[in-house]
Amino acid sequence: MIAARALKHTHTLGFYLIAVSPKKVMTSVAATTSSNPRGLHASASRAAAPGSPQRRLQRLTAVPGSSPRRVNDLLLLLLPDKASPSAGYGAPDSPGNCSRNNRHAVFFHGDIQNFQEEMSVQPEGSQWLSWSLEQVALTLGQRFPDHHVWVVRASRMYLHKFSCYHNFVESNMFGAPEHSTSYSKDYGAFHHLRSLLSHAMERANLPNPLQPHGGADSVPSGFSLTLVGFSKGCVVLNQMVYELAGARSDPQMSHFVKSISDMFWLDGGHPGGSETWVTDKQVLKELAESGVTVHAHVTPYEVRDPMRAWVGREHGHFVKTLEEFGASPHQQMHFEDEPASIENHFRVIQEF
């Protein structure tokens, strides 16, 4: 959780942005309004070797998910039209390349983060433009160079800073979740994500898109999914863990679930007083047996805050329980020897 505590640190925020330089330099996004009514397109080139293929950043607005009224805006950082030979890709229409080009990474952001133009007009948001959704998409493009990168914007930003993912999990106005431990075939985080990606892939004219419903034939060949939650965005991953047992046993959803290769928790936090990390042993046993590779990256900002000591305890329980059930979660404490700061909290997006 960022926004609820950012108010206390307003006098230091500018200092952190100037004094702490990220190890990887971010590139600005040159956005231009598109005549395409479906959204905005942007040039998303990075400092790269001459002749390297360029990735395009596309905004898709009001994409429907599990129902026409449940919509989210998304950013899509597309793989290049022609893949680089050095990356081992063939022509876009070759069978092997088709399979490799169906890898997707989906990111759920934290508080304060928003589209660049919206953050720039907010007093608090303007201090954190380096972590706008566009900039994060570009950073993730470096982390996942062979994936299409999707950034899902929270459906509501209360007071322009509190991210609320109520399309995925019941939440209060500040985005604190009320997790459901039951799975519904028509409702919930898995169902919404699948429908959201399916409709977004179709709108973006991606070849061989995921289908919103169905069994094995509805999931395209080579389709794989990596899920990344940062700060408040981790509530979406937590809800999926609670739904995992039911989703795996549902023949209409199980093949989609099997396509999830990795789940990354990046410094999870929210304004509720518990359940920042999943601690239910039976639920974590299901996660350990699912075959999903779990990654837990944290900073002192979240897990060593003396005012919210339960966050660190829950994180420890999450990792230890998965290990007890035979999983080998990848875990790392970043910036362990540095003072806890909001800047380092954000920087975990670059360092994981």
UniProtKB/TrEMBL annotation:
Transmembrane segments: none annotated. Residues 42-55 have a biased composition (Low complexity). It comes from the Eukaryota. InterPro entries: C2orf69_mit (IPR018881). GO terms for cellular component: mitochondrion. Residues 34-56 are annotated as: Disordered. This is Mitochondrial protein C2orf69 homolog. It comes from Scomber scombrus (Atlantic mackerel).
